[in-house]
Design a protein that fits this description.
This protein has three domains: 158 residues, Four Helix Bundle (Hemerythrin (Met), subunit A) (Up-down Bundle), CATH 1.20.120; 67 residues, no CATH class; 51 residues, Molybdopterin biosynthesis moea protein, domain 2 (Alpha-Beta Complex). The protein is 72% helix and 6% strand. It is built from eleven helices and five strands. The strands form two sheets. It has a three-stranded antiparallel β-sheet with strand order 1-5-2. The protein is flat.
Length: 289
């Protein structure tokens, strides 16, 4: 059930996530002020509510949620699953979620992350189709190249599958296991080749004037007697100024705009809570009667 004290937090998060999603889709970045202001407003609201109602755990759970999601965000950032803005936005959401106990903090916190990656997987697959459509020639070339290099690896799961199929006549191996043994390794390899080809579609040659902090370079860059190392942190502002001064174009990896996944995951979570609310169920029964 959604408590009334969370209505403001949910409305605040929804407005910020919509604005951040639009910004990410247009510019492939989210301004720091947007992430930090969401965190500050959420904690300020919790602090004011806690002081007026003398329910200080309401603030403590918000701080604990922000801290836990800060750790998650940095873990995903250094694993190259997130950009810096995504990690900061996740931290801010940690101060929004309706934690009412330490058990909620663990269950709901981990549950939201799992939900986030499930939504992200579907979103990422759909977005990959868009990238294929926009980069058909590059995708076909890279896919065929990788498939040609690894076609022999398909023989392993196929031989294994045939062997199990034959053995099934003697040891009654289930058909489901046989089909799984045949298809899963081959499909996994095919998905890997597909993702490698998609990765190439995300590489572009960028003008120095269009570079932004955090852009990921494809390789080390030699400019003006210096070497700008490829880093998980992406380009710094000083490195961008050096590239602009030298008027040097660079290859960067243009990441998938991931903030819409935050918005979709948040809406899914709020919808789930609303459906479980007795008030919501009563409203549905009235409308259906």
């Amino acid at each position: 059930m959604i408590e009334e004290r969370y209505y403001f937090l949910f409305g605040l998060a929804l407005a910020w996530l919509i604005f951040a999603s639009v910004q990410d889709l247009r510019k492939r970045e989210v301004a720091n002020w947007l992430n930090f202001s969401l965190l500050v407003f959420a904690l300020a609201y919790r602090g004011i509510y806690a002081s007026l109602s003398d329910e200080w755990m309401f603030l403590v759970y918000g701080l604990a949620g922000a801290a836990m999601f800060f750790l998650f965000g940095n873990l995903f950032y250094y694993a190259k699953l997130f950009g810096g803005g995504d990690a900061k936005l996740l931290t801010a959401l940690g101060a929004i979620l309706p934690f009412s106990s330490w058990g909620d903090l663990a269950a709901l916190g981990i549950g939201f992350v799992v939900l986030f990656f499930l939504v992200g997987a579907v979103y990422g697959l759909c977005y990959s189709f868009y990238l294929v459509f926009r980069n058909k020639a590059r995708f076909k070339k890279e896919f065929r190249k990788n498939l040609g290099l690894r076609w022999k690896m398909f023989a392993v799961p196929l031989i294994l599958g045939i062997a199990l199929w034959i053995a099934g006549f003697f040891v009654y191996v289930g058909w489901g296991l046989i089909v799984f043994a045949i298809l899963f390794p081959a499909l996994s390899l095919l998905l890997y080749i597909y993702m490698r080809a998609i990765d190439v579609c995300m590489i572009k040659l960028a003008e120095p004037k269009n570079l932004t902090e955090g852009d990921w370079t494809v390789s080390d860059i030699h400019v003006a007697g210096r070497v700008i190392k490829k880093s998980v942190h992406g380009l710094s502002w000083n490195e961008i100024k050096l590239l602009r001064k030298a008027k040097k174009k660079v290859l960067i990896k243009d990441g998938i705009p991931f903030v819409p996944v935050f918005l979709l995951s948040f809406l899914a979570m709020v919808s789930f809570y609303a459906i479980l609310s007795p008030d919501f169920r009563a409203l549905v029964m009235v409308l259906l009667s």
